[in-house]
Sequence to fold (358 residues):
Amino acid sequence: MVNSSGRDALSGTFHNEAPKSPWGGGSDKGDGNGSGPRNPWSVPPEGRRSRAASASALDELWRRARGGGGGLPGMPSGARLWLLILAGLIGVWIVYTSVHPIGPREKGVVTFLGRYSGTLDPGIQFTLPAPFQLVDVVDVGNIRTENFPNSGENLMLTGDQNIVDLAYSVRWDIRSASDYVFQIADPRETVRATAESAMRNVIANTTLNEAIGEGRSKIEAEAQVAMQQILDEYGSGIRIQGVAIQKAAAPSQVDDAFKAVTAAQQEAESNRNNANAYAQRVIAAAQGEAAEFDKIYEQYKLAPEVTKRRLYYETMEAVLANTNKTVIEAPGVNSYLPLPQLRRGTATIEGDTKGGAK
Fold:
């Protein structure tokens, strides 16, 4: 309801008493003696109404809208008006809860009074209005990524009783929208807990050198298979796309000691390789000598005396080749033959013989 000042302003507006009127120049008294009809906005013949009895146009409209009058011309009023408003609201509610636009990478899980009744494919789909049928739209095309750890270190015990600081990520998406909605309460936390459990199980059967070295791809594959197996047992409707190890190293507290141990292991491996190479050379030489001895033995079986003499001479030649030799003369034995002089004497005799012949 308007206040008294507003009522006065409206009263002054609606009770216009200007002498000139669009209804003609007749008398304002409306007694029929004038030249035109009475001005409807002028004071009626019975006189000015009291302020308490006169109602403004806005008050009248409000009263009619509340059912106290006939309403606006051509419009329903009272209970009929409220019925039409209620019907409009119900229509909007039905349209809003029955028409469902499903995106190309989405699925709609439909429930009928709380029970699963079907899955909607992409497009404009229709269902019964709520609360009879409800639709939960799930993005099945989005590949989600979980990083481990969220912060700090992620220490795990290896199979050889060492500790490794492991950081990795898991990529997953939704394979079955209905299982994803109904089978597990918190899908993201389930994926994280499954990933932690599967990775720790794989690392517990892996050595530290494999974890920080060439065994990463094997660890990733085994963790992915283990995670998928656990989630399938839950009926989660989740598919693991892949596991990627981002960092695998010793804890920071023992990093220096670990590097020293690693250097010592590398040095030991190098020494072991050198020893193996030397052993292979010695074995190869021994095998060659054994093969040579077998050949000589075959010859010895054919001619023992000749073979023994030849071996004796070859052995003495090998022994005396690099030693100082002392010649001792024995009675009746010519222990030294001057072979160079004999060669020169022979050459001189041959020259004289050729000259006499001439």
